[in-house]
Design goal:
Elements: H1 5-31, H2 37-120
Helix pairs in contact: 1-2
Keywords: Coiled coil, Membrane, Transmembrane, Transmembrane helix
């Protein structure tokens, strides 16, 4: 399930509103005696519960997306490193084969020279 980044930001902003602004205004109203204490406490608890739940899910869904994409990037980097390692091993093998071919060429030239000398005698 992929949630767009703007939805996460809106969720966090709304949760901040529910966690800070509403309780602050209710506490002011209760302290000014314009709102009943029990009703104010219920509003604050419901607001903080809803804000906390919304903040939790916004953060949970918002921060899992970078980890998922980071996993893809890490996988690609790991594959790239593996490919580079294979290429390095392949190059080393090719260099070793070329050195062996140079040695074989030198030996064949020596055999040719010996055969030419043997025929000249």
């Amino acid at each position: 399930m992929r949630i767009p980044n703007y939805a996460v930001i809106v969720g966090i902003i709304v949760s901040i509103f529910l966690l800070v602004v509403i309780p602050y205004n209710v506490i002011q109203a209760v302290s000014n005696k314009t709102l009943d204490t029990l009703f104010g406490a219920i509003i604050v608890l419901v607001s903080m519960g809803a804000g906390g739940t919304l903040a939790f899910f916004s953060i949970a869904f918002g921060f899992t997306e970078p980890f998922v994409s980071t996993g893809d990037v890490d996988r690609k980097r790991r594959e790239l490193r593996e490919m580079e390692e294979k290429m390095r091993i392949y190059r080393a093998r090719q260099r070793a084969m070329l050195e062996e071919l140079d040695e074989i060429k030198r030996l064949l030239e020596e055999i040719r020279d010996l055969l030419k000398e043997g025929m000249a005698v």
